[in-house]
Amino acid sequence: MFDLEQYISEEMLHTIFSVAVIIVVCLPILFIVRGWAKRFFTKKYTPHYGMLASKLVFYSGLIVVVVTVMGQLGISLAPLLGAAGIVGVALGFASQTSVSNIISGLFLIAEQPFKVDDIITINTTTGIVMSIDVLSVKLRTFDNKFVRIPNEMIIKTEVTNLTRFPIRRFDAKVSVAYKENIGRVRELLLEVARNNEYSLSEPEPQIIFDAFGSSSINLDFRIWAPADDWLLVKNTIQEEVKAKFDEEGIEIPFPHVSFYTGSDSTALPVEVLTKTKDQNPGDD
User: Fold this and answer.
1) Where are the transmembrane segments (predicted)?
2) Which of 6, 32, 189, 258 matches a 20 to 30 Å C-alpha distance to 209?
């Protein structure tokens, strides 16, 4: 008959019970403290600090739990730390890219060019910052794609933070025909800006004479809006400009080419040919 007492002594049972108590009690407490730290720092500072604090609390507590369990099991840390040092040196040479990402991540955390929930553009990718981790930054693009960008790349690349400041400017390109009165066009554009529900009155909208185009006079219509309403301004203001110009009879020209020989030159000869009913196709 199998005798369990031959294999498990009273001391071993005590050790197993102690380890189980440590795990059952400490891990739930660790999760509770992590959640509290995240909520506290998110409310008091920003979601970015809340995320960092929760990770710091969790991993620090997890290390304490693991060391405590190893102490109960009678495992000495000295040989493990020595082996970890040797393995760490070997891994350091073998994974220089990862080390570079970690150091770059520390610079990003210290410099804070962006934080969680900011909208940023890196190269050709624009999205909402989901997390800033030790090795990478995670983005969610507006077409719902998940993008992971290594920290080392971000440090070396130009990063544009679209929501760093509370307001943002939208530049609308407006073209009108050469025959139009620019002063009248300017008044209509300012009226459109005043009536737009997302446009700010301060800073004031601006109309900049951009250039004499090949088919039109080009104006730069600049409107300010809260950063959260920037896309709404972009969608509405151009439709309202079109409707206002149609209402007031302002021509928005399409690209065309005019041949002009100059005042001292002879006019270009033009001959109009009329096709008669009896003329066959292809006859001159």
Assistant:
1) 12-36, 56-75, 81-109
2) 258
- b (16+ CB within 10 A) / e for 44-54: eebbbbbbbbb
Confidence (pLDDT) at 249: 92
The CA R_g of the chain, rounded to the nearest whole Å, is: 35
Q: Is the dihedral of CA 139, 140, 143, 147 positive or negative?
A: positive
Q: Is 118 helix (H, G, I), strand (E, B) or coil?
A: coil
Hey, which residues does 172 pair with through a beta bridge?
Answer: 221
Second-level CATH architecture of 11-102: Orthogonal Bundle (1.10)
What is the arrangement of strands in the sheet containing 125-132, beginning at the earlier edge strand?
A: 146-150, 136-141, 125-132, 119-122, 159-161
Q: What is the SS3 assignment for 183-218? A: HHHHHHHHHHHHHCCCCCCCCCCEEEEEEECCCCEE
Considering the chain, what is the average pLDDT of its residues?
A: 83
CATH class of 111-161: mainly beta
Largest interatomic CA distance in the chain: 123
At 97 the pLDDT is: 73
Q: In the 8-state DSSP scheme, what is residue 227?
A: G
pLDDT at 48 over 80: no
CA angle 28, 29, 31 (to 5 degrees): 65
Would you call 87 helix, strand, or coil by DSSP?
helix
Q: d(Cα 87, Cα 228) in Å, to the nearest integer?
A: 49
Domain boundaries, the chain: 11-102, 111-161, 167-248
Q: How far apart are CA 113 and CA 158, in angstroms?
A: 11
Q: How far is it, in rounded angstroms, from Cα 42 to Cα 195?
A: 38
Distance CA 227, CA 167 (A): 5
Q: Find tokens 């009329």 and name the residue.
A: 274
d(CA 172, CA 246): 17
